[in-house]
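Whether sequence alone determines local backbone shape is best considered at the level of individual chains. In the encoding step, the backbone of a single protein was reduced to a row of integers, each denoting a local shape. For completeness, the protein is quoted in full, as a sequence line and a line of structure tokens.
***
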Amino acid sequence: MSDKWLFHFDVIREVTEIKEEATKNDKGEEVITKKEVREKKPITFAIRKPNRKMYENGEMFYAVKLSEGIKAGLLTKPLLAKRYKDDGGPLSDDEKSRYAELFYELAKKQDDIEKLKLNLENKSEATREKIAQEIMADIFQLREELQEYELAQSTLFDQTAENRAKNQTIMWWVLNLAHEKVGEITYNPVFGKDSYEEMLDKYDELEDSDDPFWTEAVKKFAYFVTFWYLNGISDPKEFEEVEKIYKAEQGLFDEDDEDDEEEEVEAVSEEEEAPVAKKKKKAAKKKPAKKKAAKKKVEETPKEEAPKEEALKEEAPKEEIVAEDKPEISGETEQ
């Protein structure tokens, strides 16, 4: 059975290629010269979609690491929270109330996303996509506010058995889900298929290397898989939103984003010019009306002049009569 994938992303790598150029010398002979050219090429990576067996192995790994932490003397979260509660806790009553409200709002927004996927209201794809973007923006804002409250308690719970097991489990998922696309349908595991310790050594080797390509690839895998594990995202569009956050944090911007900004500026300018264009169209529409009026006048004037023409026609025979009388007079004189 073929593997399924949660998300694909690219990392730019500088590649040295040898290119051949054919030229002719003074004698007309063909000479081939080889040149080393450095080019930037996108290398595609993929996050594998876990199957049932992988989920079971991940849960088992978490349970083992949790047990190891407890045996080593680390306190669990409930135990530590109970001890700290006796001292009043790190948050005030108002902060605790707000913290609970944020959790409720976050759960409600996640339910809205699930309902939107089912499309019970038969909304169009464009409408659903727009609503989904708005909901995801709200979710990210709620998570940021929640993180502020959690940071107040993070130092307290950093050394719990659960936190240690969670961090190691996230690393386990990174090592098992990271793949590199090497063909149309071929994927290779980035950290190999060996034991956890050997894969972890491979991870440390790539992370500590001076190669910016692998440093960026490893950093992206850790970021995306952590977000997936903690927030349960599975839709590629949600991963795209996470990628935008990652790029914003790293100060990276795509050319496509810049083109989008230019298009938005052009759209705004067109909207501003639209009222002016409408006014011009209205003015242009008024001009033909004048022509019609002029035509009407031209059509009306012949009607008024028509009686004059008839009068001229009536007077014409009188002139002919006069012309006929003159020869008779001239004839009498000749006699």
